[in-house]
Amino acid sequence: MYEIDDMVKDPQYVARQSIQSMAHPLFDKISVPAIHPVFSGTPCRICSLGKPLGADNEEIYCGRMGLSADELKSLKEKGVL
Predict the structure, then answer these.
(1) Residue 17: which of 42, 41, 45 has the closest Cα?
(2) Residue 68 main-chain phi, psi, to 5 deg
């Protein structure tokens, strides 16, 4: 059974472009599985690894849960968020 390190180095995985390198704000670059199957006429690509942890906290806690900005600030200061 292959481990991740084996896959990244395997010539077949490399030739098929099965692993894609992406920029990451905390880890510089990381390797992620590419999209398959690959179609020449309609190529796909991964554009984003997603938002950073907590990026939507204000929208969720204030917008959807009804907390005030001061309550959110207090939770951040207490280390809850």
Answers:
(1) 45
(2) -80, 165
Residue 7, Cβ density class (10 Å: 0-12 exposed, 13-18 middle, ≥19 buried): middle
| Per-residue model confidence as pLDDT tens digits over 34-76 | 888 888 888 888 888 888 888 999 999 999 999 999 999 999 9
φ and ψ of 67, to 5 deg: -70, 150
Q: How far apart are CA 26 and CA 20, in angstroms?
A: 17
Q: 81 and 54 in contact (C-beta within 8 Å)? A: yes
CA atoms within 13 A on the CB side of 16: 13
Neighbouring residues of 25: CB distance < 8 A, sequence distance ≥ 6: 52
State the virtual CA torsion across 25, 30, 33, 35 in degrees, nearest 10.
Answer: 50
